[in-house]
Every structure is written in C-alpha cells, then in structure tokens.
Amino acid sequence: MPHDLGSTLVLWAGAWGVAILVALVGSLLRARQGATGAAPEEIEETRPARPAASQPGVVSYRDRLRGGLAKSRAVFAERLTAAFGRGSARDADLEALEEVLIEGDVGVRATQDLLAGLRGLPAEQRNAAGMTRALRSRMRALLADVPPETASLPKTPWVVLVVGVNGVGKTTTIGKLAARHRAAGRSVLLVAGDTFRAAAIEQLGVWAERADCQIVKQGPGSDPSSVVFDGMSAAVARGVDVVLIDTAGRLHTKVNLMEELKKVRRVVDRVLPGAPHEVLLVVDATTGQNAVSQARTFAGAVDVTGVILTKLDGSARGGVVVAISHELGLPVRYVGVGESVADLQPFDPDAYVDALLAAE
Ligand SMILES: Nc1nc2c(ncn2[C@@H]2O[C@H](COP(=O)(O)OP(=O)(O)O)[C@@H](O)[C@H]2O)c(=O)[nH]1
Ligand SMILES: [Mg+2]
Fold first, then answer.
1. Which atom of ligand 1 is nearest to the CA of 343?
2. Which end of the chain is less packed: N or C, by CB atoms within 10 Å?
3. Does the predicted model carry a pTM greater than 0.85?
4. Can you tell me whether residue 360 is helix, strand or coil?
5. What are the phi and psi torsion angles at 89 (to 5°)?
6. Ligand 1 pocket test: which of 172, 206, 245, 247 has the largest number of ligand atoms within 8 Å of its C-beta?
7. Multiple choice CATH, 158-351, 3.40.50.720, 2.30.30.100, 3.90.550.10, 3.40.50.300
C-alpha cells in the first residue's frame, strides 16, 4: 500500500473514531438527562438526501475531524478514568458503560457480550487502561473479518447487485465503486435497475460518464428485470470485467420490494449462472438501529454478502458497525465518508477499533 494511502486511512480511521467517541460521550450525557428516544422497530425509508457536503477536496472529511482528534480522545479517556480510575470498577460503573455503548448504537446484543467479558476481568485489570484494552480486543473480536479487496477478479464478468432502501446512497456508492474498478484498469458496465424515477436513471448516467464506464438503461417505469436482463446480456456479450446493478429502494411495501429484488436476482442468475457474485447492502449510518433492522430484512430476502455503511461523515453513529457485524454476521465492506468519488474507503476493523477506543 503506498505510504500516502496508508496514512490517509489511518487519519480517516482516527477521524471516524472521534465522531463516534463524541457521540458515545454525548449519548451518555443525553441518556442521563432522560432525553433519549427508542429505536424504530420497523424498517423505514431513509429521509430525503441532505444538502451536498462542503466542497470536496478543499478540506477533506478526515482533515476536518482530525483537528479534534486529540481532544475527543482525551474526553473519552477522561470518562473511562472517571468510571474506572478509582480503584476497581463497581457494577454501577459497568452500567454507565452499558449506556454509553447502547446509546452509541453498538446494539443490545453486542453490548451485553462486551459487558459479560468485562465483568469477568480480574480485579487488577479493572481500571481505565485495563478496561479500555479489554473492551478494544473484545470489540475487535465481535467484528466480522473483511475479505481483502481482490487484486484480480475471481471471475468475469464479476456481478455485484446493490440493494437498500431509498436515499441511503446506493447510486452514489455504485459510482464510487465503478471509479475504484476503473482505476484498477477494469471495464465496468452499470445497469440502471432503479426504473422508478427518471432522475435515478439520469443520476446513474452522470456517474457512468464521470467514471468512464458503460451503462445499460431503459425508460422510467420499465420493468427492472427487463433492464437487468439486457444489462447482463450486454455484459456477457461485450466481455466486460465488472457489472454493477443499481436497484430501486422505494418501500411501497416491504414485501413488494423484496419480491422485486428476488426476481432481479433470478434474472441475473439465468443469464449468468452463479451470479450475482456479491450482493451489497447499502445502509445509512445516520439511521442508527434502523440500519440494523434494514440489514436484517434484506439479509433474510436476498442473501446479502456484505454491507456498505454510508454517510459516516455526517454521522456519529458509527457504533452501528458493531451491531450489524455481530448481530447479523455480515462483514462491513466499505464505508462512505462523503459525496465525492474518492469518498469510499474499504472498512478496516483494526483501525476502527483502535480509533474508537484508543487507550493513550
Ligand atoms: N455525506 C454523504 N452523503 C452521501 C454519501 N453517500 C451518498 N450520499 C448522498 O446521499 C444522497 C442519496 O444518495 P443516492 O445515491 O441517490 O441514494 P439511493 O437512493 O440509495 O440511490 C445523495 O445526496 C448522495 O450524495 C456519503 O457517504 N456521505
Ligand atoms: Mg438511487
């Protein structure tokens, strides 16, 4: 890995950690003031797109958050010291930590597992440093390992179906993924399987131009399965390396959406047996536990192979990574940290945990 990319990832991971730490601490304070709300049970559509992030490339997301890194880290360390620093940790201190983790969207199950491990720590390790160290290694163990980005594709065309509810960032993420593949010298074909709105088809067209790749589309209102059939047939005939299939995420009803996705999946497999090779679920980090319930619903319907968590730049709810990974056993493959083409980073569980729970 080139040095500058390596340091960028480290900075990014650190920056992400800051956002989460700030949220964890803030959430605890809010929770103590009784100002918390329950996470929605039902899968919901994500709210409409927020305004564009500030000028990409001027001050990057990582740079912006990096400025606050030392301070936020210190704040979190301070809270741990306050909780555990005076001799051994009492049960009440573990309860405080439980609130921090739950409010930080780590999820009930993961939180309980983490606490169970900490309760068993020997007395001499029940101080801020020992607790943080134990929490870090236990949290890392809860995160599914991420398969490395392959230098060469196992087969071509490599077909990726991208699913998720409206507004989470599917189309944008496809654009970013396309650019990554193009940068690796691969030919890419995009399939405009979200036929519900003309704007969705145009949006994918813009990304196709930007990333210099092919696109197969039909008019708005056409049958998604028919577009996908055309796209797959073209990809096979033209011998392209990568096919990225966009899909609609409009929840007219959950059942309809899932049935449509299953049908699309069958069509892909009919044209190219064994495909799609990956089904990536895109979820919006700002939706917290709702992202977890979306992941559960989609995973049950279409054999999701990995998750992409978007909008971490606008969110401090990155703890949801742990919930998705642990409760559903799905690897988080990439995270989106902004709206521009370079703002998609492979997820690094080690860097994540280190940034979240830095001891020093
Ligand atoms: N800040 C931020 N915005 C994002 C990210 N990913 C997508 N978006 C924005 O989210 C909005 C919805 O994205 P879109 O790709 O149209 O979502 P789709 O409906 O799932 O296809 C757009 O304004 C995107 O620019 C991200 O990682 N960070
Ligand atoms: Mg879209």
1. 27
2. C
3. no
4. coil
5. -75, 130
6. 172
7. 3.40.50.300
